[in-house]
User: What shape does this take?
Amino acid sequence: MLDIYKDFGISQEVCDFGSKMIKNLEERFKEIDEVAEYNQLKVLKAMQKHKVAAECFNTSTGYGYDDVGRDTLEKVYASVFETEDALVRPQITCGTHALALALMSNLRPGDELLSPVGKPYDTLEEVIGIRPSNGSLAEYGITYSQVDLLEDGSFDFDGIAKAINERTKLVTIQRSKGYANRPTLSVEQIGELISFIKNIKPDIICMVDNCYGEFVEKIEPTQVGADMCVGSLIKNPGGGLAPIGGYIVGTKACVENAAHRLTSPGLGKEVGASLGIMQSFYQGFFLAPTVVAGALKGAIFAANVFENLGFLCIPNSTEPRYDIIQAVSFLKPEGLIAFCEGIQAAAPVDSYVSPEPWDMPGYDSQVIMAAGAFVQGSSIELSADGPLREPYTAFFQGGLTWNHAKLGILKGLQKLVDARLVNISQLC
Ligand SMILES: *Cc1c(COP(=O)(O)O)cnc(C)c1O
Assistant: This one.
């Protein structure tokens, strides 16, 4: 085993340090496998219930009328998320698009959008119009208000109660911390927040940005009162196989609004050819629970490795997990860059290139991204990225298999060791 790690340029010292960390994680890995087992059966049950058959993998072109595969997949998603309806489409190009679609279709001029969990994900700033942008909600006369989390990461219930007014139509709750240094929310916490909000104003639509959260727990936010859950298929629910796509699951009314916006008023869910990619959607969804488990193991392993080396890790090495993201603050740009180089060097695709910071559309500072993915930009595959700003935090996520995630983390550590940014010799 050491020999093959050596072929990847990983020293015995780094290997030994990794092994020492893994020894302490057996119990946690067992818990993760148990959640995966439960979710695997949940997906399987939905597929059997809706009689998924070989014909579901057939292609449709043109208008895509009566696409059985597309319509059945949406029923499978609705069952897994326990919602009335679902929209799962390759025409939804990414997570931001899915979220923008859910917001723009369910809000009307004069309405107000509220985020009770602080600043939303960077790309949503332009969707909402926090940063002015062509076609934003702000341009359509939809206002936005925000209540930050309290210092300790808990909800500011007083502030939220004050922020809700007669125009508040939709509340957006981001489950994952994304690029922020705040805790990720558990499904249970999201449920408490939704109950609080619905108690004040029952007709508010509660939407959850579910990106990176799917299958991390045994329940999803739609099972604790969310009217809508939204996410990307090149993250958790695509299982690494979906080459594109996004989903919106929720009440009939919410999904219908979204469908009529995605296609056209009057057409809704009836059109949208699947162009031969349905099998990857089904198979990816089927694999997603175990893929997510591998990614979670990688995240926890990374927290244990880097916390022991003195870096701030969010979540820390022992906290429970509610998404697959691991943030590690390297404090220096060289540390962030070295770690990302390691992740890139461990990839199955493009392992020979070196990632460079760049001005990525939708982000307000330079971003470095390491991803050697089969699907471009897929972050359920092993990837690390981070904005080039203090405290130089790498957001690490994914890994289609635990073994690959482990290699990437060891390679990232090796790059830090080689650059003399850490010294592990006294720790082994
Ligand atoms: C990834 C992500 C998005 C945006 O998804 P893209 O596919 O990158 O457009 C939105 N919110 C959260 C929390 C995310 O993690």
